[in-house]
Amino acid sequence: GAGVSQSPSNKVTEKGKDVELRCDPISGHTALYWYRQSLGQGLEFLIYFQGNSAPDKSGLPSDRFSAERTGGSVSTLTIQRTQQEDSAVYLCASSQGRELSYEQYFGPGTRLTVT
Amino acid sequence: GDSVTQMEGPVTLSEEAFLTINCTYTATGYPSLFWYVQYPGEGLQLLLKATKADDKGSNKGFEATYRKETTSFHLEKGSVQVSDSAVYFCALILSGGYNKLIFGAGTRLAVHP
Lengths: 115, 113
Known about the structure:
heterodimer; A: 115 residues; mainly beta; 4-stranded antiparallel sheet; globular; B: 113 residues; 6-stranded mixed sheet
């Protein structure tokens, strides 16, 4: 079946502009995660959605970052007033639920470059 | 804070050599431990996992044993292949948490024929 998809695959933006990154999880997966992979910080957790529960936003680096998940499916990560340090690969993952027995499946990522 | 430390790369080996990639962790409670692999041009994939002390995770010839006494989860393979060339990430999930993965920095493995 289809895996996690992300769009766009690459995004180049000017400093100060807003960007939106999209994640389509595997159908039926109730848990959705965003991570960031950057040269300086490695792989770090950003935000987690589980069903209709309030998201865990503890990993968002600043208030310029926000995310939503509509209808329990597609998620959008928004970065406002982008800075050069936001340049990274943004990864989305989904799983069937929050139990540890459920594997997190990762998408191919969106490479964001802020010039 | 909770963290994962893994050996720096790159690790360069000849085909059929023995591989060890060290991983140690610091965590409250009893975390679950994972190895993820990122092949060139591909997304992250789960390689193996262990959810309690003394568990051994294994897959594709790779093994790792959850050692609570040494807070370690070293990855091993007896005979590497060129196709094993990738970046390997050790990670943990805290017990009772939201299943957010805490990753190590990654170790790049290059296997030469």
